[in-house]
Amino acid sequence: MSRFLPVTLAVVLAAGCATQAPVPEPEPAPTPLPVSEPIVEVPERRIPDDSVFALLLAEFALRRRHYDVALEQYEEQAPLLRDRGVSAHTTRLAQYLQDDNSALAAARLWAELDGDSAEAHNIAAAYLMRMGRPNEALPYLVDVERLEGDANFPLLIASYAGLEPGAQAQLAGALQGLEAEFPESVNLGLALALLFAERGERDRALAKLDTVLARAPTQQQALLLEAKLLTEKGDATPYARIAQVLQDNPEDKLLRMRFARLLTAYDMTEARKQFEILSAQSPGDADLLFSLALINREIGDSDAANTYLRQVIALGERVDEAHYYLGRIAEEREQGEEAIAQYRKVENGREFMSATSRAGNILVEAGELQRAGEWFDAQRARAPERSEELYGLEADILSKAGEGAAALALLERALAQTPDSSSLRYTRAMLYEQDDDLAGMERELRAILAEEPDNATALNALGYTLANRTSRFAEARELIERALALQPNEPAILDSMGWVLFRTGHYDEALQYLTRAYAEFPDPEVAAHLGEVLWASGDKAGAKRVWQGAAIRDPDHGVLRETLDRLGVDLSAGDPLDDAQP
Questions:
Q1: C-alpha separations of 29 from 26, 64, 100, 480, 496 in Å
Q2: Of the candidates 134, 159, 224, 520, which lies 20 to 30 Å from 505 by C-alpha distance?
C-alpha cells in the first residue's frame, strides 16, 4: 500500500481497468515525508472514474520524487473525494514542501472530515497562528483540548500585539470564557497570564501565574514570565521560585539556559554565574564559552573575555566571531595593531565586513591613508565578489573622516572597473552633494535613473535635494511622487514628500506625511523637519517636544542642530514660550 493513498494501487487499477490482467505492484519507494502516526488501513471504496487517473498520476509522481506534481493532484482531488486519508496525506505532503497555504487548506479539510483527529486540528491551528490569525486558530485548539488536553493556548498570544483592537478584545474574551470549561488547564492559565502581561496588567498576570505554578511547579515558561514580571516590579527576590526549582533539579540545563538568557537583560553578574554553571556541566561547549566571553566583556572583565574567546578558537568553533571580538577588546584597550591583527583573521563570512570596516577606521583615523588603501585592496583580493561593497565602505570611511577628495578619487577608480554600478554612482552622488556640487550629484543620479527608471532611492534622493536646496519644487515633487508610488510606506520618501509640501506652503498636508514618517522612523532629521513644520504652523510647544525627543537620542545631529540654530531655538531653556500652544 502506498503511504500517501488511503486505498491500494490495485484498487485504483481495478476501478479504472477492470478487464485487464492483474498488474504486479512495484517496490515502494523510500517514504520522503515524516509520518507522525501509523498508517491506518481504511475501508476500500470505489474511486470515482474521474479521479482514477489523477490519483495514479499522484502515486507515480511520488515514486519518482516529483512532489510538486503529486501535491497539485492531491490538492485537486481532496475536496472532491472528501476522504480523510487523502486530506491527511495532502497535508503532510504540503508540510514537507513547506507550502503553508496548501497545508492549511488541507488540514482544515482533514479536521472537518475527521473530527476526532487531534493531529488535524493541531496542524490547522499551528498554521493559522503562524499566519497571525489567532482568533481563527482558537476553535481548533479548543477541539484539541477536548480531545486529548494539552492544547498550545499560549502560542495564541504571540501575535496578540499585532492585532487590531477589536480582534484583541475578541481573543481576550474568548480565552477568559474558556476558563469555565477548562478550569484545570495549565496551558490556558499560562495563556491568560501572557495575555495580562501583554496588556500591562502585571498584578493580574502574577496572580494567574500563582495558580499555574501551583498546578505545575516546574512549568518553565511560567517560571520565566514570573521572574521577568517580578524583576520589572522591583521585587526583592524575583528569582526565588526558579532558584528553588534549579536547586531541586540542578541538571535541568534547558531551564538554566533560559534563565541565564533572561538574566542578560537584567543582571549580568547573575547571568555570568548561571552560564558558568552551564559551562562546568558542558566544558567543551563553544556556545557557552562564547556567551561567557560576551558577558564578561559587557561587565568590564576583558581579561576573562579574552580567555574565553581563545578557548572558543582552540575548539575550532565560532572562530571568526571570536577573532572579531578579540579585535574589539584590543580596540577598547587602544591596541590598534593588535586589533587589526585579529580583524585580519576574520574570514569572508558574517563578521567580515564589520571587521574590515573597523580596521579601516583605525587606519584612517590614525592618518595612515596609504595603509588603509592597502588594507582594503587586500580585502578585495580575499573576497573579490564583495569588491563593489568594499569600495563603497572604504569611500564612506574616508568621507566621514573628512577625506572627501580621497573618497572621490577612490570611486573614480572603482567606477572605472565597474562602470554599471548604481550603488557606487549613488555613493559618489552623495559625496558631490556634501561638497555642494549639486550639478555633479544630479548628473550621477540621472545616470542611475537612465538605466533604472524605477530606482526609488535615486528618485527620492534627487527629489529631496531639489526640494531642499533649489527652487525646482514642481520637478522635485514629481520625482518624489514617483518614488512614493514605488514604495508607499518608506519613511525616507514620506519625509521627502512632507518636506516638499512644506517648502511649497502646504503645511497641513506636510504634517500628515511627516507624522507618518516620524512614527515609522524617529530619526533626528525627520524630527527636525516635523518640528519645523509644527513651528511654522504655530504649534511651538509641539515642535519643541519633537526636537527634545530627537536631541535625547542624538544631540549633535547636523540637520537637527542647523534647524535649531536657524530658528533660534534653545532646547535647554526651560521657560515656556508666550505663544506656545498647550
A1: 9, 8, 25, 58, 60
A2: 520
**Taking the model in full, what pTM does it have?**
0.75
Find all residues with CB under 8 Å of 561, minimum gap 6, and list them: none
The position carrying cell 515656556 is: 576
Phi, then psi, of 64 in degrees rounded to 5: -95, 10
Q: Are 472 and 466 in contact (CB under 8 A)?
A: yes
Tally of CB atoms within 10 A around 3: 14
Mean pLDDT of all residues in 284-297: 96
CA dihedral 207, 211, 212, 216 (to 10 degrees): 140
15 vs 163, residue with greater confidence? 163
Mean pLDDT of 496-500: 97
User: Which is nearest to 563 in space by CA: 574, 577, 548?
Assistant: 548
Question: DSSP secondary structure string, 336-397?
Answer: HHHHHHHHHT--SSTTHHHHHHHHHHHHHHTT-HHHHHHHHHHHHHH-GGGHHHHHHHHHHH
Number of CB atoms found within 10 A of residue 360's CB:
25
- Grid cell of 494 as nine digits: 514620506
**Alpha carbons 500 and 482: distance in angstroms, whole number:** 14
The mean pLDDT of 183-211, rounded to a whole number, is: 96
CA 229 to CA 466: how far, in whole Å? 51
pLDDT at 46 (0 to 100): 59
Q: Residue 303 corresponds to which amino acid?
A: D
| DSSP state, residue 155 | G
What span, in angstroms and rounded, lies between the C-alpha atoms of 469 and 60?
68
